[in-house]
Amino acid sequence: MSLRVCNTLTRRKEPFVPATPGEVRMYVCGVTVYGLAHMGHARSALVFDVIRRYLTFRGYRVRFVKNFTDVDDRIIARAAQTGETALEVADRYIAAERRDMAGLGIIPPDVEPRATEHIPQMIALIERLLAAGVAYVLDGDVYFEVRRFPGYGRLSGRDLEELRAGARVAVDERKRDPLDFALWKAAKPGEPAWPSPWGPGRPGWHIECSAMSMEYFGPGFDLHGGGEDLVFPHHENEIAQSEAATGRPFVRYWIHCAFVNFAGEKMSKSLGNVVTVEDALRRHEPDAIRMALLGTHYRHPLDFAEPRLKEAASALERLRGLLDLAANEPAPGGSTEAVRTAVEEAERRFIEAMDDDFNTPQALAALFDLARTLHAARNAGSATVAPGVAALRRLGGVLGFFTTAAVAPPPALLETIERLVRLRGEARQRRAWAEADALRAELTALGVTVEDTPSGTAWKWRPPPTDR
Questions:
Q1: Cα separation of 458 and 39, whole Å?
Q2: Could you give the CA distance from residue 91 to residue 69 in angstroms, rounded to a whole number?
Q3: Where are the beta strands (DSSP E) in 90-151?
Q4: Could you tell me which of 35, 34, 67, 73 has the C-alpha nearest to residue 48?
Q5: Which of 163, 196, 294, 373 lies at a 20 to 30 A Cα distance from 433?
Q6: For the chain, what is the mean pLDDT?
Q7: Cα(449)–Cα(285) distance, rounded to whole angstroms?
Q8: Are residues 70 and 206 located together in one domain of the fold?
Q9: Are residues 428 and 383 both part of a single domain?
Q10: pLDDT in tens, 323-359
Q11: Distant-in-sequence, close-in-space partners of 18: CB < 8 Å, separation ≥ 6
């Protein structure tokens, strides 16, 4: 089966066929940097990280661009609160965002454009829209005239009258239509501003991504992603201004991931119900966070709760413990037909799941079923599970797991661990089970996992998450 994706624009799954065979140009809307990233941002980042990884796994050459919005009313308001400049606020939160994404194991984009570094491109695009007769100037502001773009509402699936009735739009009686949106905003006292043909000011939010994607991909590209809250108005407006300027289709496939909810409400900074990525990484391993977020299909809402992360950590250990222990203590002999068959079946199911609109829950199910077979074969002690371990590591890596290098315990801790493991082994030989269990508890408290197999006892130390 070929890769199929659910295209928001058409509301159906379609075969994925990029414009240039073997190449994918992919743009994802990044964050507005006025605060720390939360788990909703983490989900979007992980979803598109996995999509990028899987496209690469399938043999595509992927060029990935993800922007920063670094000029915005909220950034300006935060600067007024803290006494910083808007640029200082943006710089601080961009650094925090990059730290958080690295902590989650997300591959950095090929390009991370900042809005303020592309003002000339935005001005040039606005000039094209004015020349095309789909924009107008009002007292230093420039607006896009929605009625002059016949396809407006196509992405969100609503007509203009419905949008007028239900959309949250700023009231400005000067506009020709309530849905007309700002391309350029005239300067206000104390706010950042850049020179333009219409006077000093700053770009509207929507023009940023059109100008930046055109800068790196030209007038159209393959895949545009973001959270489902961006469908309207942001992505709807991107389509309108981009296609009105070029006369060409803007994006072939639109992919949107659903919200992360907390106590039944969308997690958002404005509601104040956020769990930041920074806080989550203090208390949980990155792969456990990844497991918790990828366990629900990206188009379905995800209810965030602490028990979900604890369950994900336990599930992760079933996979990672097998990799750690089996790789270090393989059973003797060649691999059995059962192991070879399990590997082939897991690979088939994994690819089939990911080809079906990046179905990570089903892909994970394939990995866990493979792990179950490998555990059984390893405990039987009659065959090596090395081929299965290699497949588990390779397929798990497509989802971003198992990419962090193992960390050795400090020398003093290593000496303690080895002593406790030896004493536990001696206790087991004497059948002193209570003593052996007590020693296992000591090892667990130190972050050590032990497994008893026919070929002996193996252990793995994992450093606990720490404050950054």
A1: 35
A2: 11
A3: 135-138, 141-144
A4: 67
A5: 373
A6: 89
A7: 15
A8: yes
A9: no
A10: 765 545 444 555 678 888 999 999 999 999 999 999 9
A11: 24, 25, 60, 222, 223, 252
| Distant-in-sequence, close-in-space partners of 301: CB < 8 Å, separation ≥ 6 | 258, 259, 260, 261
Angstrom distance (rounded) from CA 187 to CA 182: 13
Place of tokens 């240039």: 20
Q: Are residues 319 and 238 in the same domain?
A: no
User: Residues 379, 449: one domain?
Assistant: no
Whichever domain contains 202, its CATH number is 3.40.50.620
- Asked whether the beta carbons of 358 and 440 are under 8 A apart, the reply is no
Position 314 in a domain = yes
In the Cβ-directed half-sphere of 435, how many Cα atoms lie within 13 Å? 13
What residue numbers bound the domain in which 431 lies?
411-461
Tell me how many domains the chain contains.
3
Phi first, then psi: what are they for 266, rounded to 5°? -55, 135
Position 271 in a domain: no
In a domain, 267, yes or no: no
Residues paired with residue 226 on neighbouring β-strands, in sequence order:
256
Task: For residue range 260-301, list pLDDT tens digits in order.
Answer: 987 666 666 666 678 899 999 888 889 999 999 999 999 999
pLDDT band at 310 (very low <50, low <70, confident <90, very high): confident
Are residues 220 and 80 part of one domain? yes
